[in-house]
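Onboarding guide, step 5: your first structure request.
Type a short instruction followed by the sequence, for example:

Predict the 3D structure of this protein.
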Amino acid sequence: MPADERFAVRRESARASVPRPLATAPAPAGVPLPPGLALRGRLATGARRPETPRGSGRGGSGSRTPRTGRGGGPRRAYERARRAWDRPLTAYYVILGSSLLITVLGLVMVYSASMIKALDISKPATYFFGKQFLAAVIGGGLMLIAARMPVKLHRGLAYPILMVTVFLMVLVQVPGIGMSVNGNQNWLYLGGPFQLQPSEFGKLALILWGADLLARKQDKRLLTQWKHMLVPLVPVAFMLLGLIMLGGDMGTAIILTAILFGLLWLAGAPTRLFAGVLGFAVVIGFVLIRTSPNRMSRLACMGVSEPDPEGGCWQAAHGIYALASGGWFGSGLGASVEKWGQLPEPHTDFIFAITGEELGLAGTLSVLALFAALGYAGIRVAGRTEDPFVRYAAGGVTTWITAQAVINIGAVLGLLPIAGVPLPLFSYGGSALLPTMFAVGLMIAFAREDPAAKAALAMRKPGVRWKTMRRRVKKRSSGER
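The system replies with structure tokens like these:
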């Protein structure tokens, strides 16, 4: 017998040996079968299921969603970044990380930019760096203290800080006590190489006192009246501005004015009231600039690309030269040419120009990104809180740091007149660094006070984690190993 016939016989015998289900018997006429028996009958009698197109079922290519790349593509990466930014501790870590990075990078650039200046005055190359490092250590302690202090204690310090600051600013104007530096009478001599500029602490004093004042008035529903919104906030701010202008420090006065406008804006000042105060400040500023040849010369140096034959706009022009010679990645750390006597104040007001020359566009954009992150995190803290004091204080600190950074960098780029203000947390100057680091600690404390952030920090404590792990472990019998 051929092989095909033997295979057919075996197949028929195998079919005959399989028992037929009961549902194969024909049903009586008019008697319906149960659903289960009907299904068995159809399967047993050879009824086949309708075939589905290949790829259109489960796991087929028709049910898959197209992907734009590995891991979900740009949209999925954006969603992950957005979820990470919405976490409770994001603002806390961004404020802490960005401020510390700015301070550390500032220490490096202060050392690089000031070594030639120190040698020029017969001092060691690390003279300015040592003083800045000491101020950074003290400022770090102040930042840690401020970050651990409760909000009520910060509010309690508002009036003492304001009174001490006003006393020191009055003391600066006393002949024989106050010191004049670069034509500005706003320094106190502390002994040795150390000096103090009380006007820098006036920014912190105005923020704490103004935030406490506006918060108490908001609790009493008094901010709807323009008199309560302006008095006594604006008179006290103008008193501080007057004491600062007696010493001739126009740059610090501009920062203090920006803080005042920030507090009024956060308090919900109406447009006409805000415009009135702004117009009055602009008129006063115009008169002060018009009556000072030094300030008029600084205003005339905006946008210049080379100094005039008589030596005017020397600092502004050489700041542009430093930035232009840096290129994409700079000439290398310590390899600046402009700090060899060509650029005045390379470690204070124009340290951003030396950064651009030695670290290039990449370095300057990194500094800008850090300041942008710090400012955005401050806005987030001010916008998510329900405590009015926290909102006003966080908004005031954010206005202070961002406005001062914009004015300093704008002057280096030639977009704004040279105001003589340092770059926050970056430039040389202990009097500017100490209150700024305390203000950063203030924002860290506010970020920690958020209920969600407080719960997340509590879960990260070792004791809470150990208790959580103990609850998850099942108890074993005494004989089990």
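Each response can be followed by summary notes, for example: The chain has a mean pLDDT of 83.
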